[in-house]
Design brief:
- The chain is an alpha/beta fold and 398 residues long.
- It folds into 5 domains: 127 residues, NusA, N-terminal domain (N Utilization Substance Protein A, Chain:P, domain 4), CATH 3.30.1480; 65 residues, OB fold (Dihydrolipoamide Acetyltransferase, E2P) (Beta Barrel), CATH 2.40.50; 64 residues, K homology (KH) domain (GMP Synthetase, Chain A, domain 3, 2-Layer Sandwich); 70 residues, GMP Synthetase, Chain A, domain 3 (2-Layer Sandwich), CATH 3.30.300.20; 39 residues.
- It has 14 helices and 15 strands.
- The radius of gyration is 38 Å and the shape is rod-shaped.
Length: 398
Amino acid sequence: MSNNELLDALNILVKEKNISKETLLEAIETSLMTACKNHFGTSENVKVFMNQETGTFHCYQAKEVVEEVMDPVCEISLADAHNIDGSYDLGDMVNVEVKSKEFGRISTQIAKNVILQKIREEERKAVFDEYYSKEKEVVTGVVQRYLGRSVSINLGKADAILTENEQIKGEVFNPTERIKVYILEVKTTNRGPKILVSRTHPELVKRLFESEVTEVKDGIVEIKAIAREAGSRTKIAVYSNNPDVDPVGSCVGMNGARVNSIVEELRGEKIDIITWNENPAILIQNALSPAKVISVIADDEEKTAKVVVPDYQLSLAIGKEGQNARLAARLTGFKIDIKSETQARESGDLLDYEHEYEEENESNNEANDSFINEKLDSADSFDEVDSFDDSFNDEFEE
């Protein structure tokens, strides 16, 4: 192979395998050193010089000039040294070029295997680095085949494994079908990278919203929390950093286009989008949507909440097999106790709420009365009192 052909071959490998030219040249150098060691028994006195621009390479053995050659691998006679350069003298070191064609068949095969092994290692490393950088991201893959109860998914340059635990219950895949998966973990093994993916992880929904909703991708709308029961229902709490942008409306899209696209990808999984609020009581009320709530008493320290709903809304608030309440609890981080209005009155919980509500109103009324009395005491005439009374009524009505 000519130098130009070698250089062309290297450039092709660089593009196809995503391996640096420097790495390939190092592999060739290593292979020559290995061939020399196999052919001559040692490579300690061997040096390889390569030109990355032209692809030329030369292999030399450093030999000492002696009168009588005892070890032809490390020594050279004075006469032979003079054939190379007449200025050499006894004791000098001479670089004698080694021609690769001198290597035997076995040495050549070993050198070839060294290069191929290095290429395979670097190719695996490049693939590992590429997918390791995509860890915790969503990618599109093509279903290959079932491996027992797991599914092999081709991601382009590597295959991933979708285990039974990471599959949505009841979901069936057909070969060549394109699906989106969440990359859980990328491991390195002797056979190359091992990529584990998921269809059940809550972050899959988050990443899908990031790809589908511009406001989420740009950070205008934040997804504060997600609670998911894969294949059935997901609740997400969203918050807008821009008061002019409706977080729920942005995620739903015009006529539900954005959220419907995600629902379709998740094969009909229901998605509830609620507004995030720092006030835990309001957040819990929102999280129990679509159920209507009469009252919420939340204990932020104990992370517990008592919720009262109308009698006819109790089953809706709890949900089928408790799903709505369970997801609301996961979303908010509170242990939620839901009671109907009748149950709450019987247990006294609703009376406690009404008592707190009355105390709050009474406190507000006392503050208003105090404010009015201060104004009356400071008034110098009845005209001022009348004027204040009118302005207070106007303000109150507003």
